Amino acid sequence: MFRWQQAEGKRHALDGPFAPRPGETFTALCGAEVTVARHDVPQLGGHWFDPTCSDCAQEWLRRQEEARSNEERCLA
Questions:
Q1: Which superkingdom is the protein from (predicted)?
Q2: Is 7 helix (H, G, I), strand (E, B) or coil?
Q3: How far is residue 33 from each of residues 42, 59, 61, 63, measured CA to CA in Å?
């Protein structure tokens, strides 16, 4: 499951069932290793003001298209 998480000045995407907690590092879809801070989590009083990582967005779309293509092959 893909999800967005703000970290280190950008909204990055990751593939995983759970959002990382403050202090945890994750590998974003763009390949960057980023660490979540408390101010990156809206539920803890943070805000989503940072821009979306364009490389994560492109990778997210590429993976969605790949998954759709695989589903179509399975139906054929």
A1: Bacteria
A2: strand
A3: 21, 15, 20, 19
Q: Which two tokens stand for residue 33?
A: 């290793």
Percent of the chain with pLDDT over 90: 72
What is the residue range of 25's domain?
Answer: 2-75
How many structural domains does the chain have? 1
pLDDT at 25 over 80: yes
Per-residue pLDDT tens over the stretch 39-63: 999 888 887 789 999 999 999 999 9
Please count the other Cβ atoms lying within 10 Å of the Cβ belonging to residue 23.
9
Is 22:40 a contact under the CB 8 Å cutoff? yes
25's enclosing H/E stretch is strand 25-27
For the record, the structure tokens of 44 come out as: 């803890």
CA distances from 63 to 5, 8, 14, 34, 59 (A): 18, 23, 12, 20, 6
